[in-house]
Amino acid sequence: MSDLKNWQDLPYGGVILEAGSAAKYETGSWRTWKPVTHRENCVHCLKCWEYCPEDAIILEDGRDDLGAPRKFVKEVNYFHCKGCGLCVRECPVNKDGKAVALGFVRDEV
Amino acid sequence: MSEATAKLAELSPETKLMCERPGTFSGGHRMCAGCPTGIFTKMLTRVSDEYEIVAGNATGCLEVASSIFPYTSWQIPWIHTAFENASAMMSGVEACYKSLVRQGKLRKKLKFVVMGGDGGTYDIGLQSLSGAMERGHDLTYICYDNGAYMNTGVQRSSATPMGAATTTTPVGRESYGRKGNRKDLTKIMLAHNLDYVAQASIHDIGDLFRKMKKAIDHDGPSFINLLSPCIPGWKIDADMAVESARLGVDCNFWPLFEVEKGRFTINYRPPVVKPVSEWVMSQGRFKHLKKHPEVIAAFQAEIDKKWAWLEMEEARTK
Amino acid sequence: MKTVTAGTPKIVPITGAGACAQAMRQINPDVVAAFPITPSTQIVEDFSAFVANGQVDTEFVTVESEHSAMSACIGASAAGGRVMTATSSAGMAYMWELLYVAASMRQPVLMSLVNRALTGPINIHCDHSDSMGARDAGWIQLYSENNQEAYDNLVMAARIAEHPDVRLPLMVCQDGFITSHSIQTMQLEDDKAVRAFVGPHKPYHSILDTDKPVTWGALDLQDYYIEHKRGQEQGMRNALRVIQEVSDDFARTFGRQYGLFEDYRLDDAEIVLVAINSSAGEIKEVIDEMRTKGEKVGLLKIRSFRPFPYAEIGKALSNAKIVTVLDRSASFGAHGPLFTEITTAVYNYSPNRPLLLAHTFGLGGRELTLRHIEHIISESRICLDKGEVGNRQGLWVNVRGDKL
Prior knowledge:
Strand order of the largest sheet of chain A: 1-4
Oligomer: heterotrimer
Radius of gyration of chain A: 18 Å
Order of helices and strands of chain A: EHEEHHE
């Protein structure tokens, strides 16, 4: 927060004009553990994307086996990911126990 | 482009719709790691593409953490003014919308969503909620109930479950935590002639999606009470919010049901009803109850009584 | 400045509350959210009738409390609407938290405040404790001696409050029961002329604009709060100029000239009384009478209390030899708010500093009669001749058990 504005440059009333400006704020520095995708085991159910409170699971467009368009889990947005582990715990592939679609590893400081 | 080597999961209809629609709420907010409020806030703009959403909050964790100047997570118009008045504030927003539409000055289809924690809804905000719901504004109120005034450091609210340790009902030589049963706000809302009242949980996204859609689609006031665990308040691990909510529903502490124009529907009956002791013992705020089995028993009795009432209402209004 | 024709006004007998309701009807706000409280209730009731008869486009929200009234007003204003409300006394006290919010969010909510005593004991009659209690909230406060002034002030209110250099909420105050419930003849201006004078409302970053979504009511930490407040203060400072500009335009349109205050026979006055609202009317009566007896006395009647025109008032009091300030509210343990402001004005801006004498009167509707005013003036003369106010300083007027 190094360029703090002068009062004359602020819009009236404390209104924030830029929607979603929090996306610029790095909460990734909070974590001590981080999720790691293992795409080969992922079934792209999008549960991690649904449950992530930081909106830190990034999706991409693709096609299923029949060629119909669908969304796929691409990667974790580490700029925002707080390392809570919800995605790792709720992943149905992880729960099934036979494979790991989302690993959880100690993060490097 | 990805090459899946595992079989692709079949997406639920709700998930299919949601992933194609823009979200409401960006990352970069300051909620605790694992706080589940970010789960439902993302969904506000994803339940329908027939209208746009204008939202407002009561003071609380979600409000504070999502709007620290100059950062805002809100990607839709959003307003907050004070703790006890979110419903009144949004009543004014909605009234102005109605006025401008009637005068031909505005043509968009907008819907209004108010959010508040149990603090700003059950207690200090109850009056303004009651007033707004009674006046019939086209508002959806979503209460994210985490069972205490969490933002100020976990003080008890009227939604705090029996036996929970909070900073104003701490465990001590003369205290086992919160005395007495919590208030049933969903029931209070039923007394307001609302066409749509529901209880939902952040763990069951499909159910939550359908309820949010019904509530917001509906022209008139609607109310959703949402079970939303709190990591530091419940003293659970950061990855446990969803599991804890699931367990809370599976022990019938938080039945998932909806009431449409007086007709009750229980949306989920646990295949195996778990005893509340299991839910209670999984959280640090209750662990002292090991020494107070009579409190757990009283808690269980209250849950059973409430569930029986729910079954009766569903049968009566079939 | 655009030329607006005055149209055809009507002379009507009407109460102060009724006059405010008429102004509201003519202004035709987008939203009114109000809760009844004596003695402002008639404003809300009259307006409800206009709504029921389709005479206005207003969406009227019958909220369940004054706190909710101001909440709804702020919400509606943030949604780009022109918003009005009315209250008194404990109702104002109940919305106190939100008065600050409305001002800091720069929402130009307009209020008719019918002055009534704050509870303790509960009393429905006139004093200025309600609006004086809210003087720090950041609202523009205009006071009105009679029904005409209450009406005129409200007609001017939107242009002042909504001016881009100001954008602050504004309350027009008048005495509870004394003017709000008494029928006076007044000039009710032509509907079209008022509408043209007031002009359209321009929303500022409306919360209904989904193409440009904004966040209103964010949290400020130590790094931004004071900058936002400084901006709010600037709006108030600009209001001094804007109030005069709008008042001058009002004079050009409707023929009645207002300033930041009214000076009555002030030029050569040695004794000046300073007062707010209806008692000014009685004081003018007594001044005229005492002038015939040779006493050089005048009145400075407050119109704009916030922003307070220190320099202008200080200058106007330059030739006075004693200024006797009549406060109709108490700040317990200190002098009344009006006295405090006048002292500041005089100390800083009157090259010849007059004696300053404080009196408190009229709490809970206690009368100030012509006889009392005469007595105050003659006692001020005695102080003046002595060269000091002595133990007359801070006396309460017309209290059984106290000698005035």
